[in-house]
Write a structure and sequence with these properties.
By secondary structure, this protein is mainly beta. It has one domain (about 30-185): Beta Barrel (Porin), CATH 2.40.160.40. It is built from three helices and ten strands, in the order H-H-H-E-E-E-E-E-E-E-E-E-E. Strand 5 and strand 6 form a beta hairpin. It is elongated and about 70 Å long.
Length: about 190
């Protein structure tokens, strides 16, 4: 029995690498993200109007837990929307669940200004499938405050390409709407 294990170890390049240089699993969990930086192109729909958008999600800044995201979308000429934000992920980046407060700028509905919120990421299959829940407030505490709730999901079709879908509810004291998205994401 012991002889079979020795022969198997000599023939396995992976096992040889592990024996020569054992991986630091704790460091991998702490620093290797379970979700990828992605470029997104999508179609969207609001009130039977079709539009499109582009964005980048979770571009890591150096070796930190801080990411930069941004995007632009338009459904009708009177309602373009764009945003940019910074997120800081609290839990180890390799976790299956992560929580990130965010701060940025958003123009949505009739409001533009500071945008604060939080996002929860569920890595259903690390680097392959995730579910995101996000709540933000644009110009919080003012008469033009807009609350935005987003639920989105991504599923990898191959190593570089994913399909993305989402629904977003935007509410203010004077207006509200719902936006549905479907598109593709490329891993950067």
């Amino acid at each position: 029995m012991g002889w079979g294990c020795q022969v198997g170890a000599q023939e396995s390049p992976l096992l040889q690498r592990w024996l020569q240089n054992p991986p630091d699993l704790w460091s991998d969990i702490e620093n290797s993200p379970s979700f990828a930086t992605k470029l997104r192109l999508h179609l969207n729909s609001r009130d039977n109007n079709l539009g499109g958008g582009i964005g980048v999600e979770d571009m890591f800044l150096g070796q930190s837990r801080l990411t930069l995201s941004g995007g632009y979308e338009q459904v009708s000429p009177d309602r373009p929307a764009y945003y940019t934000n910074l997120r800081y992920y609290f839990l180890p980046l390799g976790s299956y669940v992560n929580l990130a407060p965010q701060l940025g700028y958003r123009s949505v509905l009739h409001s533009s200004g500071v945008d604060v919120g939080i996002q929860v990421v569920f890595a259903l299959s690390p680097q392959s499938a995730d579910l995101r829940l996000e709540q933000t407030f644009t110009t919080p505490g003012t008469t033009t405050e807009v609350g935005t709730t987003t639920i989105s999901a991504s599923y990898a079709l191959d190593r570089q390409l994913s399909v993305h879908s989402g629904i977003q509810w935007r509410r203010s004291a004077v207006d509200s709407d719902t936006l549905v998205r479907l598109g593709l994401e490329w891993r950067l």
